[in-house]
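dumping this here so i dont lose it
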């Protein structure tokens, strides 16, 4: 498994969304897999989610996944995401209230009709490298 520090950085709102998802995964893994750190299966899910966020065509204007018209997760990862969020979502208010409230507020934002061309985090990183 690759080290999280080697993953490409996420910008702005995408980083906040990743931190929220990671907090949920930590809560879920701690209670279901009883490991001191995030297990390999959950780490694999986090890496997949990070990649999907990096390549999201909406970029920082990304709606929450529940509202998004583009479903970019594979079926098994989508099911795992739903399971994690159903379990950890209610517990987020106790463990990470700021992230939880931000996520709830993001769910109320209007969904952009079409993503802007080149808005993804990946496109922005590639432009900065040049």
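and the seq i came up w/
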């Amino acid at each position: 498994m690759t080290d999280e520090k080697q993953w490409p950085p996420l910008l702005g709102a995408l980083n906040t969304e990743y931190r929220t998802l990671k907090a949920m995964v930590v809560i879920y893994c701690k209670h279901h897999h009883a490991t001191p750190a995030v297990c390999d299966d959950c780490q694999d899910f986090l890496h997949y989610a990070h990649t999907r966020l990096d390549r999201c065509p909406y970029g920082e204007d990304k709606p929450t996944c529940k509202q998004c018209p583009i479903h970019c997760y594979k079926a098994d990862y989508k099911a795992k995401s739903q399971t994690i969020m159903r379990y950890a979502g209610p517990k987020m208010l106790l463990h990470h209230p700021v992230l939880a409230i931000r996520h709830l507020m993001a769910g109320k934002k209007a969904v952009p009709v079409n993503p802007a061309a080149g808005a993804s985090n990946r496109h922005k990183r590639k432009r900065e490298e040049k």
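The radius of gyration is 15 Å.
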